[in-house]
Amino acid sequence: MNLKTHLTSKKSALAAALCAGLMIAAPQFANAQPPAPDAAAGADRPDRPPHEKGRDGGPRHGGGGPFMHELKSLDLSDAQRSSVRDAIKAQWQSARDERVAARQLHRNVEIATPDSPGYSGLVNQLADAQANEARDRVQKQAALKSQIFAMLTPAQKSALTEKLKNLPEPPARPEKTGFRGR
After folding, report:
1. Kind and range of the H or E element at 68?
2. Are 159 and 74 contacting, i.e. CB atoms less than 8 angstroms apart?
């Protein structure tokens, strides 16, 4: 065996060994968990219970706005807290069927093609449904707010009104330019 053949066979064996090692290690890398977040990075935020988390595990947004946020800071009795919870749950359940119907209509528009018969009528129906849904949502939120406000004592109403009055202005949103605000 000459030197050139010997080196070629060693290179081939080395390449085969590397490939075998990669084939063995690849599934382990694919199943590897990402490193745990740095404990110091989230030390200022307490962990939230599952019912207060968003889909990504972070805080849930859109929880009723400043009114509901400040309402949580009031010293509500257990009966008041229960009544507020029941009112919110009742509103959520009443809107549930509407959300299901709206989702179905949205799905019908998504799967339809522009050359489908009745496509423009379906699109108009969806636009009208979404406009009605937005108006109804605002009206129902205002009705819920009134219902909850009526459950408060005069001192709690005064405290809540003062807290809402003293909220800072929200920061201005940057102007969106281009596709998707980029």
Report:
1. helix 65-72
2. yes
Q: Do residues 122 and 109 lie in contact, with contact meaning Cβ atoms separated by under 8 Å?
A: yes
How far apart (Å, rounded) are the C-alpha atoms in residues 175 and 167? Answer: 23
User: What is the C-alpha to C-alpha distance for residues 178 and 52, in angstroms, rounded to an integer?
Assistant: 34
Cβ distance 76 to 84 under 8 Å?
yes
Q: Which residues pair with 53 in a beta bridge?
A: 59
Percentage helix, strand, coil for the chain under 3-state DSSP, each rounded to 5: 65, 0, 35
Mean pLDDT by 10 residues, the chain (182 residues): 64 70 64 53 49 52 71 84 88 83 89 89 90 89 90 89 86 78 57
59 three-state secondary structure: strand
DSSP character string of 130-141: HHHHHHHHHHHH
The Cα-based distances of 174 to 86, 154, 167 in angstroms read 38, 40, 21
Closest CA to 74 of 167, 161, 160: 160
Amino acid, single-letter form, for residue 169: E
Computed over its alpha carbons, how large is the radius of gyration of the chain?
29
